[in-house]
Design brief:
The protein is α+β, with helices and mostly antiparallel strands and 123 residues long. The chain has four helices and four strands; from the N terminus they run H-H-E-E-H-E-E-H.
Length: 123
């Protein structure tokens, strides 16, 4: 696989992910994680997920960020878990249809970072 920078990843679009789509391979995983180094892999019920906590000054800014992530998710037809609390939002990406991580999840994590970089009220 050729090396991509995070700019390239964030510019990519999600592809339709059917139940028989392959999960990200062990070989691809380190390269994709290098492009989003601030995201963590969490395993819940045997399902790998990408997760990151974004910190804001208050609930208003956290909610605005949640809505902005919701907009990019809806535009791509790929939706994260979003936990909005006072001053923070936990964003979790994984592909429900394949019960694991697809390249789409890394694309959307990179795009979430871009939304965060443009967001107001970051701590």
């Amino acid at each position: 696989m050729t090396a991509h920078n995070s700019h390239t990843l964030s510019q990519a679009h999600c592809v339709a992910c059917r139940a028989d789509a392959p999960q990200v391979s062990e070989a691809e995983l380190p390269e994709l994680l290098r492009q989003i180094p601030d995201w963590n892999i969490e395993v819940r019920d045997g399902v790998m997920q990408l997760e990151k906590v974004f910190v804001f000054k208050n609930f208003k800014f956290a909610l605005a960020f949640t809505n902005a992530v919701g907009e990019i998710a809806e535009a791509e037809g790929h939706h994260p878990g979003l936990l909005t609390e006072w001053g923070k939002v936990t964003v979790t990406w994984w592909s429900h249809s394949i019960k694991g991580l697809h390249r789409n999840d890394f694309i959307m994590a990179a795009r979430t970072n871009e939304v965060a970089n443009a967001a107001e009220g970051r701590k």
